[in-house]
């Protein structure tokens, strides 16, 4: 059997907060239970928001929590060519297509929403002729590339994945993936030429990740990842979806809501043990 490999993959677009501490501690705990290793990955494909100082802060905060990881750390912003190669493999099989629609275009025509509540793409550009696609590409119109989900599902067939939960000691269960409920998701963004869905699947395979722990808010997105794993010939890891920490407003902690950071708590006199107790460890 393969040695269990897990990963903790924060984005350096702000300082870590208690929600990140919970996710990290769950991941390292899972590695201990399964007799494996946790890798650290820096998911910084959003080059407009991610900053080197936040990457250094991630190292600082995790070290403060008493966590360690093997070197070298995988940095996603160094791997755009690799993500492009994966997208080209799908393009050669006619599984992705160019889209020129803006967010306002999509919002005005969408008839349904995805599991995250965002408008599902109405597939406007799927019906462009080859000539129109070539002309717009040659003209240099801003373009993103979307997954032809129906065609991809037809090629992949029935999709299942294994989940351990709700606790790490529970017996594994088989679930069915339902990627159609997401519509034709973006795999290559206009600004960076990749997406979270594509890069995370490629990197999990590159790092031989066997088990993935993630918050329950990411449970539905696993549908798309399982589909991409099948299309690209990758193994599907075992998943565990952990609880979320909620703020006073009943919503999950988030950088965008200026949730109090680990650095803030440290400056207030908190210890690493205080953080562990606060998140239930």
UniProtKB/TrEMBL annotation:
<dbReference type="GO" id="GO:0006424">
    <property type="term" value="P:glutamyl-tRNA aminoacylation"/>
</dbReference>
<dbReference type="InterPro" id="IPR014729">
    <property type="entry name" value="Rossmann-like_a/b/a_fold"/>
</dbReference>
<protein>
    <submittedName>
        <fullName>Glutamyl-Q tRNA(Asp) ligase</fullName>
    </submittedName>
</protein>
<feature type="domain" description="Glutamyl/glutaminyl-tRNA synthetase class Ib catalytic">
    <location>
        <begin position="7"/>
        <end position="265"/>
    </location>
</feature>
<keyword id="KW-0547">Nucleotide-binding</keyword>
<keyword id="KW-0479">Metal-binding</keyword>
<dbReference type="GO" id="GO:0005524">
    <property type="term" value="F:ATP binding"/>
</dbReference>
<keyword id="KW-0067">ATP-binding</keyword>
<dbReference type="GO" id="GO:0005829">
    <property type="term" value="C:cytosol"/>
</dbReference>
<dbReference type="InterPro" id="IPR000924">
    <property type="entry name" value="Glu/Gln-tRNA-synth"/>
</dbReference>
<keyword id="KW-0648">Protein biosynthesis</keyword>
<dbReference type="GO" id="GO:0004818">
    <property type="term" value="F:glutamate-tRNA ligase activity"/>
</dbReference>
<keyword id="KW-0862">Zinc</keyword>
<keyword id="KW-0436">Ligase</keyword>
<dbReference type="InterPro" id="IPR049940">
    <property type="entry name" value="GluQ/Sye"/>
</dbReference>
<dbReference type="InterPro" id="IPR020058">
    <property type="entry name" value="Glu/Gln-tRNA-synth_Ib_cat-dom"/>
</dbReference>
<dbReference type="Pfam" id="PF00749">
    <property type="entry name" value="tRNA-synt_1c"/>
</dbReference>
<comment type="similarity">
    <text>Belongs to the class-I aminoacyl-tRNA synthetase family.</text>
</comment>
<dbReference type="InterPro" id="IPR001412">
    <property type="entry name" value="aa-tRNA-synth_I_CS"/>
</dbReference>
<keyword id="KW-0030">Aminoacyl-tRNA synthetase</keyword>
């Amino acid at each position: 059997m393969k040695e269990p490999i897990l990963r903790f993959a924060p984005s350096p677009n702000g300082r870590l907060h208690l929600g990140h501490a919970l996710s990290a501690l769950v991941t390292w705990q899972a590695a201990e239970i399964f007799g494996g290793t946790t890798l650290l990955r820096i998911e910084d494909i959003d080059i407009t928001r991610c900053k080197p100082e936040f990457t250094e802060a991630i190292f600082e905060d995790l070290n403060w929590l008493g966590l360690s990881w093997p070197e070298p750390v995988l940095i996603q912003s160094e791997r755009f060519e690799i993500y492009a190669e994966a997208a080209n493999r799908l393009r050669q099989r006619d599984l992705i297509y160019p889209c020129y629609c803006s967010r306002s275009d999509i919002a005005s025509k969408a008839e349904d929403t995805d599991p995250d509540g965002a408008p599902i793409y109405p597939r406007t550009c799927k019906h462009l002729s080859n000539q129109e696609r070539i002309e717009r590409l040659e003209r240099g119109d801003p373009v993103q590339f979307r997954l032809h989900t129906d065609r991809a599902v037809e090629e992949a067939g029935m999709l299942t994945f294994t989940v351990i939960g709700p606790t790490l000691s529970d017996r594994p269960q088989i679930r069915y993936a339902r990627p159609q409920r997401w519509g034709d998701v973006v795999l290559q963004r206009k600004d960076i030429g990749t997406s979270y869905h594509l890069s995370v699947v490629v990197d999990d395979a590159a790092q031989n990740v066997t088990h993935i722990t993630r918050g329950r808010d990411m449970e539905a997105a696993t549908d798309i990842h399982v589909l991409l794993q099948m299309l690209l010939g990758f193994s599907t890891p075992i998943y565990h979806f952990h609880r979320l920490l909620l703020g006073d407003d009943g919503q999950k902690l988030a950088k965008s809501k200026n949730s109090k950071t680990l650095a803030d708590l440290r400056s207030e006199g908190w210890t690493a043990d205080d953080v562990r107790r606060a998140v239930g460890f």
